[in-house]
Input
Amino acid sequence: MRQESRSGLTTSLVYLLDEDLASRSIVGALRDAGLEVTTVPDEFGRGCLDVDWLPEAGQRGWVVLTKDKAMRRSPLELAVLQASRVLAAVPQIEGIVRSRRGRRAILARITAAGEVRVHRTQS
Output
């Protein structure tokens, strides 16, 4: 079910912020914009390893936001990964997720300009 947020963005996705992005200011800004946001520390505890929480995030269909560049190089993390200017990228994120339904993982990068660049998808 899609709903319109206060910012005019439409979303039915849950955004999970990795520990490196889980500051009050970022979480607050996303929530103020009407997005459904949770964090790795809130859901899985501080210091939880990526390989422990990523499978659960993928099963739940959450969009994972992180600054962890190492995820792009870790085959184990890439195998379970479900996927600055996040709000500008939300419509693109939603379009990418919808167009690639059924994929186990979508690895993308949000540029400083708010553009989303897909690096890899796995079916």
Notes: The helical segments are 24-32, 40-44, 50-60, 75-80, 86-99.
